[in-house]
Design goal:
heterodimer, A: 259 residues, alpha/beta, Rossmann fold, six-stranded mixed beta sheet, 9 helices, globular, B: alpha+beta, 2 domains
Chain lengths: 259, 282
Amino acid sequence: MIQFFHVSKRYPGGQSALDDLTFDIARGQFVFLTGSSGAGKTTLLRMIFREEVPTAGQILVNGRNVSSIPRSKIPYLRRTIGVVFQDFRLIPRKTVFENVTYLPRVLGVDVQSQKKMAYQALRRVGLAHRLNAFPPELSGGEQQRVAIARALINDPEILIADEPTGNLDPDLSREILRLFLEVNLRGTTVILATHDRDTIQRVGRRVLTLDRGRLALDQELIGTDPPALDPLAGTEIETETEMETEAPAGYEPPEEGPA
Amino acid sequence: MNLLRSWKVSLLAVLTIAVSLFIGGAFLLVSGNLSASVERWRGEMRVVIYLRPETADADLRRLAAEAARGPAVTSVEPVTAAAARKRFQEVFPSLSNLVAGWQDEPLPASLEIGLDPRATGAPGREAWLAGWRKRPEVTLVDDDREWLGQLETVVAVVRAVGLALVAGLLGAAIFTIASVIRLTAYLHHQETEVMRLVGATEFFIRGPFYVEGLLQGLIGGLVASGALYGVYQAVHARGQGSLFSTILTLGFLPLRQVAFLVLLGGAAGLFGAVASLRREAL
C-alpha cells in the first residue's frame, strides 16, 4: 500500500532529513513510527500525503508515485488519507460540525448528507453530542477526538497521526490510542508517529525506528499489555438502520462558506 | 461571508473603488455632454460675413446670391443694417438704447450663411472664405468652426485628463482590494491549511477570495453610479437656466456606460484578488 524506495530528503542548506529509506507498509497494517526529536518522523509522514517531496528515491501510495503526480492531482490523493496532528489544527471559530465536515463540503456533499456523515464520525469518537460546540469549549482529549473524526469522515484508506497524544495526559492518550486501534480493526492502514516507547512496548505492533534520518530498526513487537479491543466498540457498521441515523432533532448546522 | 465578517476593511476597498469610478464616471459624463453640445452646435454651424456700413441693399442682395453658390452652402440670409439693429433691440431689450438715436445705422449689414455640417471639409471652402475676406465690401468673416475646433480640443483634454486620473485611481483601488484580500487570506490561513490537507482543490480554496474581490468591485461600481446619478440630478435641478449646467446636464450616462462602470469595478476587484493571491502561499 505504501512503499518507500531509497528515499532521501536533503534541504537546500545541505541538511539531511531522511537518508536512503526503503520499506513498505501493507494494507491494513498498524505501524508505529518512532525515533527521537529530529529523527525525520514528521518529514516521512508529510511525504506520504505529498506535503514534502523527496530529493531522491520514490514513494508509492496505492501504486502511484506521489512525488511525480501533478499538483492538480494532489487533492485527490489527500482525500484518501486522513491526517491527525499533535496540535489538533481545529478552527476555533467554527463549530465541531463545521470542523468535521471540511472534506464533505469540498466534495460537494449536500447538507443533509454532511449531517449524517458528521454525526456518524463523531459517534465513532464518542462526541456526537458536541456537534454545536466550539473547540475552545472542549478538553484537549475531546479536541483530538474531533480532529480524528475529521480525518475519518470519508473512511480514508490510510490514517496518519503525528504525535497525536503529545499534548494529552496518560489516560487521554490511552483513550486516543484505543481509537486508532479500533479504526485499524476496520481495515484502515494506520501510521502513528510517537516517541513514547512505553506505549509502543505495551501495545505492540510493527515499529519503524528512525535515527537521524535513517531506518535504524524495523521490528514486530508483541505488546506487554495490549488494550482490549471490541471490533464493534465505537464503530458504526453501516447497516440500513444506522445509515438512516439522523442528527439530533432541531440541529441546524450553520451554512457558511469555506473562507 | 468575509464581506460581512470584516466589513470595515471591505468598506474601505468598496469606497476606494467607488471614488475612482465616481471620478471616472464624472469625466465621462462631462466629456459626453460637451461632445453632444459640440455636435448640436455643429449642426447649427454658420459663417457670418459682415459688410461695410455703406453697402447698399441692392449690393447686399447681389452678394447674397453670389454667396449661395459657395461650397456646401445650405442657406444665405441677407441682414440689412436696420434689420440687425431691430434684432439687437428684440434680443437685448434692456440695451436697446445703445443702438437708438444714431445718425447712421450702428450695426453693419451681414450675410448669414448656413453650412452643411456633413461637409465641413468641402473642397475649395477655405479658398472661398479667403476670397470673401479679401473683398473690399467685407469687414469681417466670422467662421463658427474656429471656436468649435477650440471646444473640441477642450473636450479631448477633459477626456485625456479623466482617463489618466481614472487609470491612477483604479490602480490605487486595485492595490487596496489586493491588500484587503491578502489580509483576509492571512486571517484564514489556518482554515485554508486544513482545507488543503483534506484535499480541497486550489480553485475551491481561492474561489471565495476571488468572489470577494469581484463583489467588492461590483458594489463599488454600483455605489459610484448611484452617487453620480444623485449629483447629476442635484446639479440639473439647481442649475436650470445656467448655460454651464445646461451643457453639463444635457443627459445622464447611457445605460451601457453605467454597466461599463460597474463591470469595470468588478474587473478591478477580481484583478486585485487574483494579483494578491497569485504568489501568496495562502
